[in-house]
Amino acid sequence: MAVKRDYYEVLGVARDASPEDIKKAFRKLAKDCHPDSNHENGSAERFKEVNEAYEVLSDQAKRSAYDRFGHAGAQSQGFEGFGNFGFSGFGDIFDAFFGASSEAEFSPRPGSDIHTRVTLTFEEAALGCDKEIDVNRVERCSRCHGSRSEPGSETPRCTECDGRGRVQRVQQSLFGRFTNVINCPKCGGEGRIVEQPCGQCRGSGKERKRHSLKVNIPAGIDDGNAIRLTGEGDAGDRGGSPGHVYITAEVKPHAYFRREGYDVNYDLEINFAQAALGCEIQVPTLYGEDKLKIPPGAQSGTVYKLKNRGIRRLQRNGQGDQLVNLKVVTPEKLNKEQKKLFEQLLNSLNGDNARKKIEP
């Protein structure tokens, strides 16, 4: 009984080859050793060996079992050899010889998507706004309306395909006769012959134009979020729907607000006197100024919350809060009078807030 060769050796690939590399090697070998194209002795056996190797290595479970236990492992996963022609590579062989079915070439094809960006201020992203953006997109030719022909000219039906855009080619193989549908070489799959191409689009049926779009930016959008404008992309082919426009938001940083989810952080600086005595301060928010009451004896690092003064929630009801982070600022320079007042304050506080002695 003949000893089976290593499947990786049969396909000529490394043991860590990717599925795509394995498929590529299989297609080439299957075409080279197929009995219909290779009449040398042993080509049929070689063809079966190549397919057997591909049957195992193209299946993740079978390949894993084969890597661990060899040919016995592959059989344990349900592979019994090529004798019954029940192999998963049949479609790949067909593609290798006849090419994939060209039916998709005649179907309507959607247009390409367009990706662009819009720059927003912090407030525009938080509260929402309307913007206008310009896109350079492919549209139907305004002169021939996509017909590709000069207006008024004739576009006779293609005699090669009788206007169907497709022709059939019959080929004989090991598996019998196959009818392959291909693009009509005469009309390029259009079904009609353009005798006088449109002078504006040069027979392409399309033209590239700059177009202005109005975009509603929803409140709460964040940096990196994208908006889709359906059907505003490039025009499709053969009646296909147009593509979409995807707009990615770029939010500029604010001078003093910081975003944290739907909350807004703001640092409020006050001096010693305000912290000790307490005060009322007008605090800026996204919605104008709000009054914030600081109680006497306020400490640096305290966080105050201004309810519902944050960012509106994206496509939801409600909004976040504004968090005011208190920072008591030490003056760096004092004039004589201020220095004297601080000295007096220091002397008056020595009895109450002097540094505590460490008890033995």
What can you see in these coordinates?
- With 360 residues, this protein is an alpha+beta fold.
- It is built from 10 helices and 13 strands.
- Strands 8-9-13-12 form a 4-stranded mixed β-sheet.
- A hairpin with a 2-residue loop joins strand 8 and strand 9 (263-270).
- The protein starts with 6 loop residues before the first helix and ends in a 7-residue tail after the last helix.
Average pLDDT score: 83
Q: Could you tell me the radius of gyration in angstroms?
A: 37 Å
Helix content estimate: 25-40%
Q: Based on DSSP secondary structure assignment, what is the total number of beta strands?
A: 13
CATH fold category name of the largest domain: Helix Hairpins
Write the H/E string, N to C.
HHHHHHHEHEEEEEEEEHEEEEH
Q: Could you write a compact summary of the structure shown?
A:
The protein has 360 residues and is an alpha+beta fold.
Which descriptors apply to this entry?
three-stranded mixed beta sheet, single chain, HSP40/DNAj peptide-binding domain, 26% helix, Helix Hairpins, 10 helices, 360 residues, alpha+beta, disordered C terminus
Chart the SSEs and their pairings.
Blueprint: H1 7-11, H2 19-33, H3 43-57, H4 60-69, H5 71-76, H6 90-98, H7 103-106, E1 114-120, H8 122-127, E2 129-140, E3 166-173, E4 176-183, E5 206-217, E6 226-229, E7 245-251, E8 257-260, E9 263-270, H9 272-277, E10 279-285, E11 288-294, E12 303-306, E13 322-328, H10 336-353
Parallel strand pairs: 1-7, 9-13
Antiparallel strand pairs: 2-5, 3-4, 6-7, 8-9, 10-11, 12-13
Helix pairs in contact: 2-3, 2-6
